Amino acid sequence: MTEPISAAFLDNPFARKLTAFVALSPSDLSVVSDLYRRRRPYPVGVDMIHQGQSDHSAYLLASGWACSYKLLRGGARQIVDFQIPGDFIGLRSVLFRTSDHNVEPVTPVHASVVTQTELLNAFSLTPRLATAVLWAASRDEAMVVEHLVDLGRRSASERMAHFILELNMRLRLVGLADKAGFACPLSQYLLADALGLSAVHVNRVLRELREEGLMTFQKGQVVIDNYDGLVALSSFDRDYLDHDGPLLA
User: Fold this and answer.
1) Taking the model in full, what pTM does it have?
2) Cα angle 171-26-113, degrees, rounded to a multiple of 5
3) Which of 30, 53, 119, 127 has the smallest set of CB atoms within 10 Å of its CB?
4) pLDDT-based confidence at 97, cuts 50/70/90?
């Protein structure tokens, strides 16, 4: 018989995220809790991970938002994704030994350091944890595919609508949003760097979506006024996020 999961574990956003993919036992979740134990603050604007850095640690994001990005030779920046509470930052770089991107907090964050040795030891103690992390990493890869489609084929308004819906789903998974909206600390400049638009264009698109009664984004709060309308506009298909309950019970 499966033991009941402590509510304290589910208050951990990383545990909440993983249990959406794989049912973890209390002993599995105890290992997750151990990985969370060295939490410390990181300030805005100071990279936690540098492109080309080797032998660094990964991070479990407990609170706050960060972004992963690449810098081009001319100084332009492309934001690859935003990290939210519950995300594993730098996992691929730890396993590959060298980071291929930068990670910078966009709000003050608290994160726990996880070394390669600690991660591999945790995986050996609980294979289900390794499976859950693999599942989460596969979902993140699926999101990257959608982001490529955003940049290559979706219009600016479709791009924004799809981004907002994806972010809404990710935040709902860790209890930080509902279907009506969520708190969002991202500036129009950050949105521009992520969506391949100018800040002026982002402002115009947000105004159009507001005037069409679909959503508003003001003062750090996204309000989804017409969820189905946003889905129709962006052809949003949530299947790639795989949030319909754990496949391994």
Assistant:
1) 0.88
2) 55
3) 127
4) low
